[in-house]
Design a protein that fits this description.
The structure holds 2 protein chains of 2 kinds. Chain A is an alpha+beta fold. Chain A is about 35% helix and about 10% strand. Chain A has a two-stranded antiparallel sheet. In chain A, a hairpin with a 5-residue loop joins strand 4 and strand 5. By secondary structure, chain B is α+β, with helices and mostly antiparallel strands. Chain B has a 4-stranded antiparallel beta sheet, with no helix packed on it. A 4-stranded antiparallel beta sheet of chain B has the order 10-9-12-13, with no helix packed on it. In chain B, strands 1-2-3 form a 3-stranded antiparallel beta sheet. Chain B is globular, with a radius of gyration of 29 Å. Classes of the chains: A alpha+beta, B alpha+beta.
């Protein structure tokens, strides 16, 4: 009987589907790799990037308890070293500094921080907000002030100059609430993850 | 009795995999929508989220502090926390200790419970709890019952049992040498928990499907429980400690029935309990004790005097694990697949401020280029006026000076080699942002080619809809289908050859 035509075609089609979709999936995840391999904004309390990657056991507990659903888990798109690690995209959902993720981390990759203003201001350093003055409405002569109203520490982490022009201070913890709130598209204020 | 208890615990473990993320997510919804948020969640939540919210509010929501209670159970089989008590997979713990010795107290504390259980009860985690084994018991039925009916006999290759030690140490070595978390990402019984969680909440999987297809293929193509017998590093460690356990299969002093191999044939781990055997390879499932026609084998505790005779019940029992295993993979996907939790939906009614969040940021030459893409109603939405309209916001910032480019800019929208449109701007649309609106033929990868003064470069932009990517499923399904068809073909070919030689010798 041997390999009849129908079976050959079936097997071939199945194999082709498999290979083609693998290739397509691969192309999709690696084609814009350069764009996605930038530094990730880690949850509050994260150790320096290298220590964090060493200690994190990829259990996804921090994402499971995040009440603001800000913490996401990386896929293959952000590189193998980062696979299954938590990160935050403030423009989608910013951190509201409740510190629950630091409570549940089993290995201390996120150090435990109390959920009060003083502890958060002194210990959390996820990144720092940077204003793009050529885009910011307030710096272009139209008062806006949305970011200062979104900031959890107004007057401390962010001050305003004339016409509600935002001035970010060193106290900024990098929660990203200002980036989430910015009405400009693309956002005129964005969090640059902390250098480590 | 033992068989029923074991089945119950296995199903409980599978249930836990679904229940724990559901509890966590239910708690989150409860906090986001508030105690009386029924109206709000019926407007903005998905059916799955509404269901979860209702379930949570009539159960945990009745307790004193629901937000805290929803965090009492967190984690998966790689790392569990039950009322603050830590449980860690020993391989994950070992790997992390090796990579970063600083965290060892927490890690050792977490690995303590699995260690104690293994020393007292043997490899019961593998036989009684592990979701991968439960899943494979379903595929075992496929292998032994269903496939022979269509003329496929799976091979029984003897993959050396020490391979799991090699894998364990090679993996640990590689993890240390290349400084990556290897087993924490790869172990299938860990991945299954992460996948259920991320399917339920984010609607995506992170390669879990590929890992499971590998394990299932090993079951179908190598031998029964090839993963558990010869490959699983957690099984290796637990077996090592489990060989000390007092809880084990024992054979009575009486002699066996002559020529009977019922127990050895029944054993999924390929052990022969009639002979002295290595305790590290037995996972105490007790299948051999029910298989023995002379009742010579007992599992730690005295055999029950009464058996459940109903054949119907036993058949039902066998179907359950296969069904549940498949349902476990598919149900959360179907329930809320395309929904990113709490993220804006790109529809006017669903999310008013409509802040576009799909952002590509690349460095090309001296510029940091940001492209924000914004779908008016999402691609391929039936109800929208302009279904495939995409708006791109492009801005170029000089990486050195921090100044944004505001001169003339030409933007080409390309897909592969076809040029869809060219836009020329003398100045930005507003505040250093150039805006382009274009109807595109579908989702996929587009290139924006930018030509400015003394600069040109292109930015790949992934234009995605809100739908699930079925590609990994198709890919792994395709591979499994292909292998099955190959099997059928080989089997048929062999049968026909035999028939021919038989006919030739007969003539």
């Amino acid at each position: 009987m041997g390999l009849n035509r129908r079976r050959f075609l079936l097997a071939g089609a199945a194999a082709l589907t498999g290979v083609a979709s693998l290739l397509a999936a691969g192309r999709r995840s690696f084609a814009s790799a350069g764009a996605r391999f930038r530094r990730l904004l880690r949850p509050p309390g994260a150790l320096s990037e290298q220590d964090f990657l060493d200690r994190c056991i990829r259990c996804a507990r921090c994402a499971a308890v995040c009440p603001n659903t800000a913490i996401q888990m990386t896929g293959f798109g952000q590189g193998l070293r980062n696979l299954n690690t938590p990160y935050i995209v403030p423009r989608e959902q910013a951190c509201m500094l409740c510190m629950k993720c630091t409570e549940v981390c089993p290995t201390g990759a996120l150090t435990r921080i109390a959920a009060d203003d003083d502890a958060v201001l002194t210990q959390v350093k996820m990144g720092r907000a940077v204003v793009d003055r050529s885009m910011c409405f307030s710096y272009q002569g139209r008062t806006c002030g949305v970011c200062i109203r979104a900031c959890p520490f107004p007057g401390v982490a962010m001050k305003t100059g004339m016409y509600e022009q935002p001035i970010v201070t060193d106290a900024c913890v990098g929660c990203g609430l200002c980036e989430r709130a910015c009405i400009h598209v693309p956002q005129a204020i964005r969090i640059v993850p902390v250098e480590s | 009795m033992v068989a029923w208890l074991r089945r119950a615990i296995q199903l409980g473990a599978l249930g836990l995999l679904l229940a724990v993320p559901a509890l966590n997510y239910g708690g989150i919804l409860y906090q986001q929508y508030g105690k009386n948020g029924y109206h709000k969640i019926s407007l903005t939540g998905t059916v799955f989220e509404q269901w979860l919210y209702h379930l949570f509010s009539v159960t945990v929501g009745r307790l004193a502090d629901p937000a805290v209670r929803s965090m009492d159970w967190v984690g998966n089989f790689g790392s569990f926390s039950v009322f603050g008590f830590p449980i860690l997979d020993p391989v994950v713990a070992a790997e992390t200790v090796l990579r970063t010795p600083v965290a060892w107290p927490a890690l050792l504390a977490g690995a303590a419970l699995p260690f104690v259980v293994a020393v007292v009860l043997g490899r019961v985690f593998c036989g009684w709890v592990c979701p991968v084994n439960t899943l494979l018991e379903g595929f075992d039925l496929l292998r032994r019952r269903a496939l022979p009916k269509i003329g496929v006999r799976s091979p029984d290759l003897k993959v050396p049992r020490w391979a799991k030690w090699t894998l364990l140490f090679a993996g640990l070595g590689a993890a240390v040498a290349f400084d990556i978390a290897l087993w924490a990402n790869l172990l299938p019984h860990v991945q299954i928990g992460r996948d259920v969680f991320s399917l339920m909440v984010f609607g995506v999987t992170n390669g879990g499907v590929l890992i499971f297809s590998g394990v299932i293929l090993a079951e179908l193509l190598l031998s029964r429980r090839a993963w558990c017998r010869s490959l699983c590093p957690t099984g290796a460690l637990l077996g090592f400690f489990g060989s000390l356990a007092p809880f084990r299969v024992r054979k009575a002093e009486r002699a066996c029935i002559d020529g009977c191999t019922a127990c050895a044939r029944a054993c999924p781990m390929g052990v022969n309990p009639a002979e002295p055997f290595s305790l590290a390879e037995c996972y105490n499932c007790g299948v051999c004790t029910t298989a023995c026609p002379a009742d010579l084998l007992t599992l730690g505790i005295p055999p029950s005097p009464r058996r459940f005779p109903a054949a119907l019940l036993s058949r039902l029992r066998k179907g359950v694990s296969l069904g549940l295993g498949l349902a476990l993979l598919l149900v959360p996907l179907a329930a809320s697949a395309h929904h990113m939790r709490g993220k804006p939906h790109y529809g006017y009614a669903e999310n008013y401020p409509q802040i576009p969040t799909r952002e590509t940021r690349v460095r090309v030459g001296r510029y940091d280029i940001t492209v924000v893409s914004y779908f008016f109603e999402g691609l391929r939405r039936q109800t929208s006026d302009t279904p495939d309209d995409v708006q791109f916001y492009v801005s170029l910032t000089d990486a050195k000076t921090g100044q944004s480019y505001t001169g003339p800019l030409t933007i080409e929208v390309r897909r592969g080699k076809t040029r869809l449109a060219v836009f020329q701007h003398d100045r930005p649309f507003e505040e250093a942002v150039y805006r382009v609106r274009q109807s595109v033929p579908g989702t996929g990868l587009y290139d924006l080619r930018l030509i400015a003064e003394g600069f040109q470069g292109s930015v790949p932009v992934d234009v995605r809809g809100d739908s699930v990517s079925w590609m990994p499923y198709a890919a792994s399904g395709g591979v499994v289908l292909f292998v099955l068809l190959l099997f059928i073909h080989r089997r048929r070919a062999r049968a026909s050859r035999r028939r021919k030689t038989h006919a030739a010798s007969g003539a």
